[in-house]
Amino acid sequence: MTFQFGRRAFTIASLSLTLCASLFMQAPALAQNDGSAAKPLRVVLIPADGGTEDGTKKDFEPVFNAISQATGLKFDLKVGQSYGAVVEAMCNGAADIAWYGPVSYLQARGRNCAELLALAVRHNESIYYSGIFARTEAGINTLQDLKGKKIALGDVNSTSSFNVPVAMMLKAGVTPAKDAASLVIAGTHANVLKALAEGLVDAGGASFDSFEKAVNANAIDPSKIKVIAKSAPIPYPPLAMHPKLSDAVKAKLRESFANVHKLPGINKDQIRGYGGTKVDSYTTNVNEADMAAAAKMFEMVTEQVKLDIMKKAGTR
After folding, report:
1. What is d(CA 295, CA 284) in angstroms, rounded to the nearest whole number?
2. 99, 125, 263, 310: most buried, per Cβ within 10 A?
3. How far apart are alpha carbons 26 and 307 in whole angstroms?
4. Which residues of the chain have a pLDDT value below 70?
5. How far apart are CA 17 and CA 281, in angstroms?
6. Which residues, listed in sequence order, are joined to residue 133 by a DSSP beta bridge?
7. pTM here?
8. Domain regions of the chain by residue span
């Protein structure tokens, strides 16, 4: 099933990870690659903000090229077709490094196929925020006002365009599958905001970084969209590496990411984070406990809640 946003059609994401199609997913590897020219480290990026595959790769090529120049490690960058596909790529041995949202990272970590590598740093912080936004003309001033409204959400495995917005609604006594007039699973933050801008929905969930990016690109008119709720701080989407990489490769990766802003061959405008956002640097001073604590923000969003939302979204 698809929903038409302007002239482009966006397909509803499947809840089942086993159905995630990805050209780069191969049979399970016997060992992770070593970063040599013959076996480059396979990097899989989550599809963010509706960017093209080529555009997403170009955002991150300067970072990985600088690290390659400094360490001799070779990289092969690809973009996953969905958040779930990135988890599967890492867990079936088809990836060595992956970019996750906090939710998808915890899924991979729970399957023992992801280990924290680095978080982006922007304005001396490694946090971002999710929000619920609404059209100013929709008569929505509080989360309770979302009842009876048309709501757009992102990928079911997205932290800040699905899980956190749904959690905020649930905590406010709004059950999306029961209380919304209709639900649209738009797939990405950009698609959620596009649906809002075009008046196809009354409200939607997305990250504040995505909102800022859309405003700066003149994709939405901020005078016609307002903030209904802002989340608590969320750890930035993490870079993770496969636990079976060698200790030597892990050490090189940690050291190079911690110093990428100082490496030759890259300038500050080329250092990008989630969604292609310009960031200041990366930190490898990361803590699994902090990431696990973030899960408490969306622990109410159970598999049954997700299934109910997907069912509602599939109803015409």
Report:
1. 20
2. 99
3. 28
4. 1-30, 47-52, 316
5. 32
6. 204, 227
7. 0.79
8. 21-124+237-285, 127-234+297-313
